[in-house]
Amino acid sequence: MWQPMVLAAEKGASSADKSVRCWGNAWYQVVLRVRPPVPPAVEVPIAQLSIKRWDREQVFEWRDLQRIKDDILGTGIEAMQLFPASDRIVDTANQYHLWALPIGMTFGVGYFDGRLTDADPETQDMLDKMDESLRNRPDYVGAKQAPREEHHTDEGLPNVGLAGEWWKPFFDPTKSTLDDLGMGSV
Q: How far apart are the first and last CA of the chain?
């Protein structure tokens, strides 16, 4: 059964500086680092979640990473995992990194047509109809989806997570997209 993330430690130059915070539960250790803007390449603060299992084994379920992001940063925060150029790879442990933007901002990639998960009844109806139209094909396998565990939901989770408004010291609320910041599409 999923256990909530608990703040384990904070490090910073002063008690007001909480640029590094450590969170954990029974399965995962998470380090949150808030990276200040570094113009011109990065015009907004970035939250980095460094995630690893306590037993140092691989993370096989992306929904756990989504739940960790939702718990610590919030459901209103967009984060991504980066697959860097080969000369920037850091691969020394079963450790995973999510990079997040301030609330209300998006990376400008991905799907923008709204929520679509097999947990939503309307989506399940649509998938059933699609499956029905394909069943006569000789190569038909059907959609496969890993089973959902109880904690694989964002129901009841806040828009802003346990880390609070980490972007506030840096963020100009009049800018909400990369285009607004003059960065264009990535």
A: 39
